[in-house]
Amino acid sequence: MAEARSDLTSRVLPATTLCFASSLAPRPLELHNHHANSNPPIECFRVSGVGIIAGGAGDLGAAFSRALFEHGLQNLTILDAPSEETAEPIISRLSSDFPLAKITFTRVDVADSGAVEKAVDAVVQTLGPITILANFVGVVCCEHAVQHSLHSWRRAFETNNTGSFAVAQAVARTVVTTKKGGSIILVASISGTRVNFPNHQVEYNASKAAVIMMKSYLAVGWGA
Ligand SMILES: NC(=O)c1ccc[n+]([C@@H]2O[C@H](COP(=O)([O-])OP(=O)(O)OC[C@H]3O[C@@H](n4cnc5c(N)ncnc54)[C@H](O)[C@@H]3O)[C@@H](O)[C@H]2O)c1
């Protein structure tokens, strides 16, 4: 039965917990008197375990890999399409900046779900349970919608959507098996919610919009 409108002012709203109480507790002494070598804000964002960065040989994926190492990650695998020689400079730069970290590379087409599953299983075997997946793989083609080829359209959806789902699913399956929990980040784009006119990229916008909904669906379905 609907509440009387006047009752709404005394209604108790359901509480939402966004993180553990211990991580929300104020730590004024630590923040104000911290040792010169410690860095509490960084500690709050410390990451550990094993990471997979799909598209890690690209610009944003490589920067994200670096950020994970800066925040404490020790084991990371890059899954990407180009050859090992192309990815090599990125891996050697990371290896020399983070000598204690273990970094591996596997060449894989994310739209090939069998190959993705094999690569992800190999990571668990060699590095351990996966704690974080970030998928940066994405392609765009610039063609006017009137002339847009279905080949480019299908390539964008195969890579940006089927690929995103394939890596997310492969990692989720290992997380179910290892029972360790984990985080999955799917990179979309502002183009998934806005038309960046005059960029001619209808397939990119549509595919990134789908990534955004996939993220929402999986967050509810797998997070529950
Ligand atoms: N750069 C931007 O301004 C921007 C803005 C918004 C969103 N994004 C998104 O962020 C992500 C990364 O962007 P970026 O600028 O680093 O792009 P990038 O082209 O530098 O990196 C993309 C990576 O994906 C890889 N890749 C492409 N197809 C693949 C496939 N089938 N299998 C495996 N790997 C494949 C490429 O080899 C490349 O290393 C993309 O998803 C992009 O759509 C980028």
TrEMBL record:
GO terms for molecular function: oxidoreductase activity, acting on the CH-OH group of donors, NAD or NADP as acceptor. Pfam families: adh_short. Keywords: Oxidoreductase. Transmembrane segments: none annotated. Coiled coil: none annotated. It comes from the Eukaryota. PANTHER family: 3-OXOACYL-[ACYL-CARRIER-PROTEIN] REDUCTASE FABG (PTHR42760:SF115), SHORT-CHAIN DEHYDROGENASES/REDUCTASES FAMILY MEMBER (PTHR42760). Belongs to the short-chain dehydrogenases/reductases (SDR) family. This is Gluconate 5-dehydrogenase. It comes from Triangularia setosa.
